[in-house]
Design goal:
Length: about 190
C-alpha cells in the first residue's frame, strides 16, 4: 500500500518594520532608536510555531536621505534578529528599499520597483521562497504597505493604524494582543 503525504503550502506573513515591529520615531537607523512594540516578540514566535515564514519588507528612505547608511540599517537588523532569537521569532528574510525619487544621496535617487507601494520586493520574496500569494498575509502601518502587497496578489491584509486617520481600521492590533485567539483568527482569514 502506498500513501502520499499532502504537502502543506508554503505560507508567510509579510511585515513592515517601523510602526509595526518597532516604534516609529522617524528614520530608525541606530540601535538606540530601536524599540519593539509590546508583545511583538512573543507574537512572532507564535506565528512561526503555527508554520508561517516571517518576512520583513521595509522602505528605508533614511538611507537615501543620508540620515544613516546601509551598514547602519544592517546593524539595526542584526540587533533586531538577535533580540527575536530567544523567542524563536527571527525573520526568515529581510528585504529593504534604500531608494527615494528625491534622495539627497545621488546613488539612491531613482524611481524603482522595490519602493512600496510598488510590489517589487513582495514579488521577489514570493519567488525566492516559493510562496503562493493566496497562502500569505501582510501587515503594515501605512496604506502603501498593503497596496504593494495587494499588487503582488496578497489579499489578506492587516493595517496597524498608527496615524490619526479615523478611516483606517486597527486590524493589526486585533491580531497581536489576542494571542490565545491567534490560531482561530488565522484560520478565519485563511
Amino acid at each position: 500500500m502506498r500513501t502520499t503525504q499532502k504537502r502543506m503550502p508554503n505560507k508567510a506573513i509579510f511585515f513592515d518594520r517601523d510602526g509595526v515591529i518597532n516604534r516609529d520615531y522617524g528614520y530608525v537607523g541606530k540601535i538606540e532608536n530601536f524599540e519593539f512594540l509590546p508583545e511583538v516578540q512573543e507574537t512572532l514566535g507564535r506565528l512561526k510555531a503555527l508554520g508561517y515564514k516571517l518576512i520583513l519588507i521595509t522602505n528605508q528612505s533614511g538611507i537615501a536621505r543620508g540620515r544613516y547608511t546601509e551598514a547602519d540599517f544592517w546593524q539595526v537588523t542584526n540587533y533586531m534578529q538577535q533580540q527575536l532569537a530567544p523567542y524563536q521569532a527571527s525573520f526568515d528574510a529581510v528585504y529593504f528599499c534604500p531608494h527615494h525619487p528625491e534622495a539627497q544621496v545621488l546613488e539612491y535617487r531613482r524611481q524603482c520597483s522595490c519602493r512600496k507601494p510598488q510590489p517589487g520586493l513582495f514579488l521577489q520574496a514570493l519567488a525566492e521562497h516559493e510562496l503562493q500569494a493566496e497562502h500569505c498575509l501582510a501587515v503594515g502601518d501605512q496604506p502603501r504597505d498593503l497596496i504593494a502587497a495587494s499588487r503582488a496578489g496578497i489579499t489578506r491584509l492587516y493595517l496597524n493604524s498608527s496615524t490619526d486617520n479615523p478611516e483606517l481600521k486597527d486590524l493589526y492590533h486585533q491580531l497581536l494582543p489576542k494571542l490565545s485567539l491567534l490560531p482561530e483568527l488565522l484560520q478565519a482569514v485563511a
